[in-house]
Design a protein that fits this description.
Elements (H helix, E strand, L loop, with lengths): L6 H13 L3 E6 L4 E6 L9 H4 L28 E3 L2 E3 L5 E5 L6 H14 L3 E3 L17 H14 L2 E5 L3 H10 L2 E4 L7 H9 L4 E4 L6 H12 L6 E5 L17 H8 L4 E3 L1 H5 L5 H10 L4 E5 L17 H17 L5
Parallel strand pairs: 5-6, 5-12, 6-7, 7-8, 8-9, 9-10, 10-11, 11-12
Antiparallel strand pairs: 1-2, 3-4
Helix pairs in contact: 3-4, 6-7, 10-11
This protein binds phosphoenolpyruvate (PEP) and manganese (II) ion.
Length: about 325
């Protein structure tokens, strides 16, 4: 409370705390009065409801704003088991495939090389969010059918994006993991819908989101009784424009400290250019990420989306060998 706070101001804060269903603890010192708000769900209470009250100097959050995603809530790492793939355990899981599903030949070729080189999951967007709304928006359900065919052929699991609530049901029919893109991290109705689908969800970090905001978004999925959330750092927007986004590789150990959820790295959307992708991928594994999601294309020059950041099959093959060495150096495997 402010210096010189009056008793009636203190009383009205106490009253507001009670109205909101919390308890309080009053600490009156020589100079300052501090009121602690106590209760189970303080994380869901906006600090602004107290900031506006007369006599209040400052409101600090002591308890984290996210709960279900936090290490306090669950000490041991979440290890997701999807088919026979484990994410968050000792293995570093590689997801690879094109940005967009373009054709059956393209997907089958990607699936073949991905499988051969040790990837476990095939990526490919059928519903595409784009930097420009005028870009290619995906093959929709026809694209999902192509992914299903590739799964049947290779046994790879499928990850693909749902962009809106209306897409969730059809995407859930085909996908093993539903991807929520960076532009949708705070689309709470979509998060509720993917949560309710009870499919594993890959939650990309919003490119302007803090760690706290990201983990609150994860909480929003987890609260639908869906414990299968994987976080994905894909680069954030900073003053640096030398890569498409700035890969916040340092977030990996911080996530590991504060959350039990697995985290993977997307080096492709961070880099924006194929030449930078392998370095960011290797940095991600070295930093302790539980996996990578990498864009590859049989002929990047002809890609309908993100060709510049897509690896050719030979670059991808070389990268996979290097990644195996890095994983083994830190006691993990691919
Ligand atoms: C993607 O992975 O295809 C994609 C669009 O990524 P992001 O949401 O991170 O831009
Ligand atoms: Mn892409």
């Amino acid at each position: 409370m402010q210096k010189g706070v009056t008793n009636s101001q203190i009383e009205s804060v106490k009253q507001r705390i009670k109205e909101l269903g919390f308890d309080y603890q009053l600490n009156s010192g020589e100079e300052l009065t501090v009121i602690a708000v106590l209760g189970k769900e303080t994380g869901s209470c906006d600090t602004q409801v107290f900031e506006v009250l007369p006599g209040v100097e400052k409101v600090f959050r002591i308890e984290k704003a996210f709960k279900l995603a936090s290490r306090d809530f669950q000490q041991k790492d979440t290890i997701l088991k999807i088919g026979d793939v484990e994410i968050g355990g000792k293995n570093v899981v590689i997801m690879a495939g094109p940005c967009s599903v373009e054709s059956e030949e393209q997907i089958l070729a990607c699936a073949e090389i991905a499988k051969q080189k040790g990837a476990k999951i095939l990526r490919g967007g059928a519903f595409k969010p784009r930097t420009s709304p005028f870009g290619f928006q995906g093959l929709k359900e026809d694209g999902l059918k192509i992914l299903a065919k590739a799964k049947e052929r290779t046994g790879l699991l499928i990850i693909t994006e749902a962009m809106s609530i209306e897409d969730v049901a059809v995407v859930a029919d085909y996908a093993d993991i539903i991807q929520v893109g960076t532009r949708n991290m705070q689309n709470y109705p979509l998060l509720t819908a993917v949560g309710k689908s009870h499919k594993p969800v890959l939650l990309k970090r919003g490119f302007a989101a803090t760690l706290e905001e990201w983990l609150m978004a994860a909480d929003w999925i987890l609260r639908e009784d869906n414990s299968s959330v994987i976080l994905c750092e894909r680069g954030i927007r900073t003053f640096s424009n030398c890569t498409r986004f700035t890969l916040d590789v340092g977030v990996v150990p911080v996530v590991k400290r504060f959350s039990h959820l697995p985290i993977i790295i997307d080096p492709s959307h961070a880099a924006g250019y194929f030449g930078y992708v392998p370095v960011l991928a290797k940095a991600g594994v070295a930093a302790g990420a539980d996996g990578l999601i990498v864009e590859i294309h049989p002929d990047p020059k002809k890609a309908l989306s993100d060709g510049a950041q897509s690896l050719t099959f030979s670059d991808f093959s070389r990268l996979m060998e290097e990644l195996k060495a890095i994983a083994s150096a830190i006691g993990r495997s691919i």
